[in-house]
């Protein structure tokens, strides 16, 4: 066990200089990147109240399920403290406070912080949300943390974040197009820029793993296999509402997303396929026997999951969230 940890640390510090070099290809300069206020009514202007009225008018057209998904997405984004503190606990990340990994973690957090901020303000202004109920769920989610099955292993963690950034990209992108269909162009724009951020972040995490595959292919393959066997759980899997037990709201949130086609079992398979391609799993070299077996498992997985997904029925059970007014 100790040997593996040492090796991981070695690999992490080997990649660190590349990180510092490449990091800003995946991040945008702070002074010019979008900020929540670019999209929201400006309270210092005399048009503030009429702008809010307009915002509320278009928010009226959003379907119940879409509002539910948007709230779940927002709470997920707002649990950012969990993700940042988690990343700093990953083996090799915080060894050097000024090193590439810590720098990446802080810059990534800074970009991510705008997502929950923007969506929360939008939802507050929309008038459709019981903010107190939503805030309680947010506090619960941060307090409850998560259990994503990665331990402190950087390989498993960055495989997880690669997957997760792609999943949030899909989800925000779909909310954007659904919002547009429902007549809310402002919300559509907001979710569009957030989806753009997630796509950049996904590229970064995928690059880290690509580098890891270059120097430690067998262990990287085993880590990938392990994460896929466990299945990638969503970071909000502990989601709950007032009076409910830990995780009890999560299934209703994902049902709403599945019903609307915002994020489905098919998307899970598509993301897996993308990772297999981008990490050149099929043609990976330098594998030992167990690595070869792991590769076989991964290569066969999309077809297997697809068969399962085809048998799955669209969840019809309607659920009344405490978060939504009326
Ligand atoms: Fe985000
Ligand atoms: Fe993200």
TrEMBL record:
- Give the matching CDD domains: Acyl_ACP_Desat
Q: Which domain of life is it from?
A: Bacteria
What keywords are assigned to this protein?
Fatty acid biosynthesis, Fatty acid metabolism, Iron, Lipid biosynthesis, Lipid metabolism, Metal-binding, Oxidoreductase
Name of protein = Acyl-ACP desaturase
The answer to whether the entry has keyword Oxidoreductase is yes
Gene3D superfamilies xrefs: Ribonucleotide Reductase, subunit A
- What Pfam family is a match for this entry? FA_desaturase_2
């Amino acid at each position: 066990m100790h040997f593996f940890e040492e090796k991981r640390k070695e690999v992490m510090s080997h990649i660190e200089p590349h990180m510092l070099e490449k990091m800003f290809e995946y991040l945008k300069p702070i002074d010019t990147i979008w900020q929540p206020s670019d999209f929201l009514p400006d309270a210092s202007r005399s048009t503030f109240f009429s702008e809010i009225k307009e915002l509320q008018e278009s928010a009226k057209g959003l379907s119940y399920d879409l509002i539910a998904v948007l709230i779940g997405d927002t709470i997920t984004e707002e649990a950012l403290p969990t993700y940042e503190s988690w990343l700093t606990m990953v083996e090799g990340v915080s060894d050097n406070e000024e090193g590439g990994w810590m720098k990446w973690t802080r810059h990534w957090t800074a970009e991510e912080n705008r997502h929950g901020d923007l969506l929360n303000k939008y939802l507050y202004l929309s008038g459709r949300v019981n903010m107190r109920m939503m805030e309680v769920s947010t506090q619960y989610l941060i307090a409850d943390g998560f259990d994503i099955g990665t331990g402190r292993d950087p390989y498993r963690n960055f495989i997880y974040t690669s997957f997760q950034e792609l999943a949030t990209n899909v989800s925000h992108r779909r909310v954007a197009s659904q919002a547009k269909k429902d007549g809310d162009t402002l919300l559509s724009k907001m979710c569009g820029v957030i989806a753009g951020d997630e796509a950049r972040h996904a590229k970064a995490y995928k690059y880290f793993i690509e580098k890891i595959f270059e120097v430690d292919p067998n262990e990287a393959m085993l880590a990938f296999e392990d994460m896929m066997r466990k299945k990638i759980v969503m970071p909000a899997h502990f989601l709950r509402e007032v009076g409910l037990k830990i995780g009890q709201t999560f299934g209703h949130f994902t049902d709403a997303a599945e019903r609307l086609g915002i994020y489905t079992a098919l998307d899970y398979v598509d993301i897996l396929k993308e990772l297999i391609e981008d990490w050149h799993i099929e043609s990976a070299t330098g594998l030992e026997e167990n690595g070869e077996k792991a590769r076989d498992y991964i290569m066969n997985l999309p077809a297997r999951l697809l068969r399962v997904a085809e048998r799955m029925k669209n969840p019809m059970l309607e659920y009344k969230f405490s978060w939504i007014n009326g």
